[in-house]
Amino acid sequence: MMLAHPLRMTEALLSSERPSIRLHGARLYRCIVVIGWSERLAAERLGLHRTALRRAIAGTSSLAPDLSGWLLDLEAAHLAHPSPHIHKSTAGLRLAEQT
Questions:
Q1: pLDDT tens digit sequence for 14-55
Q2: CB–CB of 58/27 below 8 Å?
Q3: 8 A C-beta contact, residue 32 and residue 78
Q4: What is the DSSP string of 4-44?
Q5: 98/74 Cα distance (integer angstroms)
Q6: 28, 30, 78, 82: least CB-packed within 10 angstroms?
Q7: Of the candidates 44, 43, 45, which has an alpha carbon nearest to the alpha carbon of residue 57?
């Protein structure tokens, strides 16, 4: 039995069809908090100007679907695999998600 290469499995998961989600407002802010990024770092990692990120957090604009999907994937990974020394601010978010 031949096992699939991990990279190919990842590519298949990432290329799967997903609805066009455009993060904005509180949901976007929650992703950033769970991942543990500051606003400045989030803008840098997303390749956005800080003003553009602030507008999306304020709800007057939204992120592109590809960035939104990527952030949701990162948030899910952080929630599924928390640090053994989880910070108290994200512990509440994790508990709320489980209920």
A1: 545 566 899 999 999 999 999 999 999 999 999 999 999 999
A2: no
A3: no
A4: PPHHHHHHHHHHS--------HHHHHHHHHHHT--HHHHHH
A5: 17
A6: 82
A7: 43
- Percent of the chain, pLDDT > 90? 60
Which amino acid appears at position 67 of this protein? L
Which of the following CATH numbers is that of domain 21-98: 2.40.10, 2.60.40, 1.10.260, 1.25.40? 1.10.260
Residue 31: name the closest of 60, 80, 89, 71 by CA.
71
Structural contact between residues 62 and 24, judged by C-beta atoms closer than 8 angstroms:
yes
Which single residue is written with the structure tokens 């509440």? 92
